[in-house]
Amino acid sequence: MNFIEEIVAKDLQEGKNxxxxxxxxxxxxxxxxxxxxxxxxxxxxxxxxxFGGVCNLRFDDTNPVKEDVEYVDSITNxxxxxxxxxxxxYYASDYFDQLYELAIRFIKEGKAYVxxxxxxxxxxxxxxxxxxxxxxxxxxxxxxxxxxxxEAMQRGEIEDGKMVLRAKIDMANPNxxxxxxxxxxxxxxxxxxxxxxxxKVYPMYDFAHGQSDYFEGVTHSICTLEFVVHRPLYDYFxxxxxxxxxxxxxxxxxxxxxITYTVMSKRKMLQLVKEGLVAGWDDPRMPTxxxxxxxxxxxxxxxxxxxxxxxxxVEGMIxxxxxxxxxREQLKEKAPRVCAIFDPVRLVITNYPADKKETIVAENIDGxxxxxxxxxxxxxxxxxxxxxxxxxxxxxxxxxxxxxxEVRLKNAYIIQATGCxxxxxxxxxxxxxxxxxxxxxxxxxxxRKTKATINWxxxxxxxxxxxxxxxxxxxxxxxxxxxxxxxxxxxxxxxKVVNCKLESSLxxxxxxxxxxxxxxxxxxxxxxxxxEHLVFNRTASLKDNWQKKA
Length: 550
Fold this sequence. Notes:
Layout: H1 3-14, E1 22-25, H2 35-50, E2 54-59, H3 69-82, E3 89-91, H4 96-108, E4 112-115, H5 119-125, H6 143-154, E5 164-167, E6 182-186, E7 201-203, H7 205-216, E8 220-224, H8 231-239, E9 250-254, H9 266-274, H10 289-295, H11 299-309, H12 320-331, E10 337-338, E11 340-341, E12 344-349, E13 358-363, E14 373-378, E15 381-385, E16 406-409, E17 414-422, E18 428-435, E19 453-454, E20 457-458, E21 463-470, E22 495-502, E23 514-517, E24 521-525, E25 534-540, H13 546-549
Parallel strand pairs: 1-2, 2-3, 8-9, 10-23, 12-18, 16-19, 21-25
Antiparallel strand pairs: 4-5, 5-6, 6-7, 11-22, 12-15, 13-14, 15-20, 16-17, 17-18, 21-22, 23-24, 24-25
Helix pairs in contact: 7-8, 11-12
């Protein structure tokens, strides 16, 4: 078990919370989920599943300026796609009335005050980690005046940014979060996606989160390490209204997910989308769940990756090669092998009858008969890869070249190149060869070995397809650590588009179907694909450096 699971198991053994386990996943509906969120999702929902508890989904919808129903829908879709089921869907806005009343209570008890300073003045007066802050000139205003002003803020009588409600704690506390943190701010310019214009003041995260956990009955509030310094304030707010000895939620922290050649900042992702540097939140180069899905990653592979990296209290950087290795390991056992010719050149088998067509039966995955077979039309003219032929070849080139060298066409016949045609620029346009009629794979004479096997597609039945070759979005290993603007670090070769020839068996391929294009990599049918215009995305290359590193 990881250390969080050990804590939960110990709490159950000791009978805490009457043996009840309740977690929550609390996303902000201001962007799409990324793989960093998946690490939290797997832990939040996994703890509930493992220990017979409940995990609820609660949207932290406390900032209507940045939130949208689009994000709410995408988050619920992504979590369901990953294979998790929540107990209930809640929103921080479900508790706005309770939070407001709690803020009124804080004011009446002299624990909160309305501050009219600007954000810049408040920041300056907070001091530094080694120097105490200065009290606001409004810190000691009368309770009645604080109540009147806060109620005026809620009625919309105060302009945005003119006032905030702050907790009165300790401006000299070494924990900067205790230096009179802001509890409420005014937002009148953007209606809330659920409550409309009812509210003019909205709670800050540190005031809303712990109280929402309490109202909801959360036992284990699990978050990432950057919230360690927030935990004392989390406990402080709850201490102000929950009697000692009664139920209260507790916060636990684990290391966040950082992956090489990737950014995990929603702010930076939003910039990439808005500035058109990627094709959207679901661009297959993005680390978003919808981007990974469109690239061809499966829920099983993503969850397996999360299991591999584990949970600790130490921040680190995970090699993206491990993520690629995980999907590669899964697809190699299930993705049918097919022929795709990326740079086609025509091959004419001169001694094959011009009017003859036959069907080659090939296993979907060599050596795994239970995964079935497919049919490949074969005729006199085929498409082959341009770099599988050289007019002049050295001793280390074993594919097609005039001079008697034999090469096998995958699942078909052995051929020998006899010559070629070229255009005015000297580029090969047609390769000529002869075949051995008795060398067909699967027949008595088909056991003869050759030093090379090449892929092919019948010209008459070949399908035209657009193939998008995706690579890592950034050219540097750790974009966040680089002093340059992160947009300057984008990999110019993160997307290449080629038009290729596919074997006819892919005519019935459906969106999100996976294939291994022989010698090319693993591919998935893109959401843009239609019967008239086939589109495939590269999920992963065939080369796996992770195993060598491991």
